[in-house]
Amino acid sequence: MIPNMASSTSSRSDRGLVVFGEFFFDLVFYDLPTIPRMGEEVKTASFARFPGGGLATTALVAAQLGTPTKAITRVGRDALRSQEWQRVVKSGISTGGCEFDAHLPTAITVCAACEGDRMMITHDRINAKLERLLARPSVQKQLRSGWHLHLACALRPPQLWMAAIRKLRKRGLTISADCGWNPEVLESPRLPSLLKEFEFVFPNESEAKAMTGAKTIEVAARNLARSVRVPVVKLGRDGSLAVRDGRIVRMKSIRVRAMDATGSGDAFDGGFLHGYLAGWPLEECLRAGNVCGALATTGAGGSSAIPTADKLRKLMKKLR
Ligand SMILES: Nc1ncnc2c1ncn2[C@@H]1O[C@H](COP(=O)(O)OP(=O)(O)OP(=O)(O)O)[C@@H](O)[C@H]1O
Ligand SMILES: [Mg+2]
């Protein structure tokens, strides 16, 4: 078990995970023969659509592994009948704290991938001022019943999140965040005081360096440990590392044939948090994160290759 988290493991895993963040419809056109110019149309036989954004991927991974999981997000009414939202609902993720906006459409990203590169177009007006959701009575109810809150969003600007986060922390929830690549948030002088409220933060290598101004990943991780209890840095094919009691714990990843790295970081978060809620030691949480992150790179998006609990156990053994 991660130190200083004295608690009954069963109440932790029973109360489970609440994931808060942005939900997207991701429409991906890939294997394009060329990128169209203005006025042109290009056709491709390769197309996929799936729930996108950190919220969906992290929640889907944790839920499929058996962690009771609740999602809190804002979507349009158009989401209700969509296959992307249905995937979330059918995974057993509780959506009772979600807001269904009557006027705005669900956030959507169209991605065009050609020869290893890609371009994206996003419409996400619905995600403005998402932090206001935290004050809704239905959301408060969901949060009261959870053990851990994971924020899968940019926290923009950090000071707007402070009061709500402090309150939740005082109520006994443990909290983590994955802000993604958002330099104005990562480099904000207001971020460190928010990080003090967090059990974990999950940056990748460039995000950890941007958050601290450090040149090496080890220095960045140690700097983060001055505010976050256990910083966890994702290192792509090199696995991940964390800082516990001032010492760096490194964990390699499994070898895979990577096809699309989108969402691998969010899948890592889901695997890691599943381990945390099950009361596993930090090393095992890192192994679980690495396996889920690595598998996510083998399919399109972050949630097309989620392991079962059994498969996760088997693959984690390879990392011992
Ligand atoms: N090619 C790979 N081989 C093995 N494991 C991988 C590979 N790519 C990613 N992983 C695993 O997935 C984790 C997350 O990947 P990465 O470091 O790319 O996160 P990220 O940059 O936050 O991703 P995202 O695009 O989702 O934001 C890594 O820490 C590692 O465990
Ligand atoms: Mg990431």
Give me the number of helical elements. 12
Q: Could you state the CATH homologous superfamily?
A: Ribokinase
Unreliable stretches covering 5 or more consecutive residues: none
State the CATH topology: UDP-N-acetylmuramoyl-L-alanine:D-glutamate ligase
- Small ligands present: adenosine-5'-triphosphate, magnesium ion
Number of domains: 1
Level-1 CATH class name: Alpha Beta
For the terminal residues, how far apart are their CA atoms? 17 Å
Structural class: alpha/beta
Strand order in the sheet with the most strands: 4-1-9-10-11-12-13-14
Q: Which term fits the overall shape?
A: globular
* Biggest pleated sheet: 8 strands, mixed
User: What assembly state would you assign to the polypeptide chains in this entry?
Assistant: single chain
Tell me the strand percentage band.
Answer: 15-25%
* Mean pLDDT across every amino acid position: 95
